[in-house]
Amino acid sequence: MSLKPSSSSPARAPRIVVLGSLNMDLVLRVPHAPAAGETLLGHSIATIPGGKGANQAVSCAREGGHVQMIGCVGDDAHGAALRDSLRRDGIDTTALRTVAGEPTGTALIVVEDSGQNRIVIIPGANARLEADEAALRQQVQGAAFLVAQFETPMEQVARAIAVAHEAGCKVLLNPSPVQAIAEPLWPKIDTLVVNEIEAQTLCGQSADSPQEAAQAGRALRARGIARVVVTLGSRGAVAIDADGARHHPAPQVQAVDTTAAGDTFLGALAVALGEGQSFDEAVRLGIRAAALCIQQPGAQPSIPQRDAVLRSPMPPDWIKL
User: Fold this and answer.
1) Whether the Cβ atoms of residue 124 and residue 74 lie closer than 8 Å to each other
2) Annotation says 113 is catalytic
3) Mean pLDDT of successive 10-residue stretches along the chain, which has 321 residues
4) SS3 annotation, 171-207
5) How far is C-alpha 205 from the geometric centre of its chain's CA atoms?
6) How far is CA 159 from CA 36, 151, 166, 233, in A?
7) What local confidence, expressed as pLDDT, does residue 199 receive?
8) At what angle do helices 279-293 and 261-274 cross, to 10 degrees?
9) Are 257 and 296 within 8 A, CB to CB?
10) Which of 154, 155, 185, 274 is deepest in the core (most CB within 10 A)?
11) Choosing from 84, 190, 263, 317, which is the catalytic residue?
């Protein structure tokens, strides 16, 4: 079934609050990931702003959202660079705290010639994030979404989700790196975005194919969530809500670097939903954004602007499952 392309001039720009991690990415490009005991000659090394929280904030901003970032950086050059990078994208950093004596979070990313990546994260200042309930309640008032992930302390994420829910702000959660979600939190989540591995870990059943992803998504939805998206990489994504499950294929492109593809998808999804677009329209926009992202190297440098996404090819028609 075809959907009408999204408008490049939305009626309103949604306000989105992102609570999460900020990392400086140390990116190594290599022919292949080294085996145990192997010494490998790499191609290049680069230092690039990243972190799932910051990546998702940048994606939301480049899709046209008004974004506030809540997080922590160290009192070092990387922290200053990350703060400045967010400001250049128009992101409000007044709630970004500098933690004295802690290094800024760091991610070692090994990118293979195939485009696949392997990532090791050192949390640093991210581990010191504290959700101030009074401040957060004010920050989420009138926001379309609170966006969160699991690269910051779980108890702080849980507290933020509870506060947002009480304040009437919808929660969009990307539980990555995957951890168990406490039962009282499930009904407080409006939209859950997971990949195949995260879906399987959370519901205990395989999500490798679109059909399996639909079943896993239904199981997750049954815990009280309104909408679930299971992303499937080059095979697109499966959207599950009260109307059932739909497989949205992805356009076929040559992957250069898959870093930040999921974060790019999530940002486009959040802004489109905040604009009032349908769930399926939002998922398709996210797929188009992610397809552009993986054709460029790096995390935040590869996240596209809305205009570029709207000029990109439409994905194939979606299939009801």
Assistant:
1) yes
2) no
3) 41 91 94 94 94 97 98 97 98 97 94 86 95 95 97 97 97 96 97 97 96 98 97 97 98 89 97 98 98 92 96 93 96
4) EEEECCCCCCCCHHHHHHCCEEEEEHHHHHHHHCCCC
5) 23
6) 40, 15, 11, 31
7) 98
8) 150
9) yes
10) 274
11) 263
Q: Which domains does the chain have, with CATH numbers?
A: 15-22+51-104+126-320 (3.40.1190.20)
Residue 108: both structure tokens together:
């070692």
**The predicted structure's pLDDT at residue 1:** 41
Q: Report how far Cα 115 is from the mean position of its chain's Cα atoms.
A: 19
CA distance 248 to 287: 8
pTM above 0.85, yes or no: yes
Q: In what order do the strands lie in the sheet with 117-122?
A: 44-50, 23-30, 105-112, 117-122
* Helix pair angle (133-140, 154-166), 10° resolution: 50
Question: How far from 283 is each of 22, 228, 236, 269, 274, CA to CA, in Å?
Answer: 25, 11, 9, 6, 13
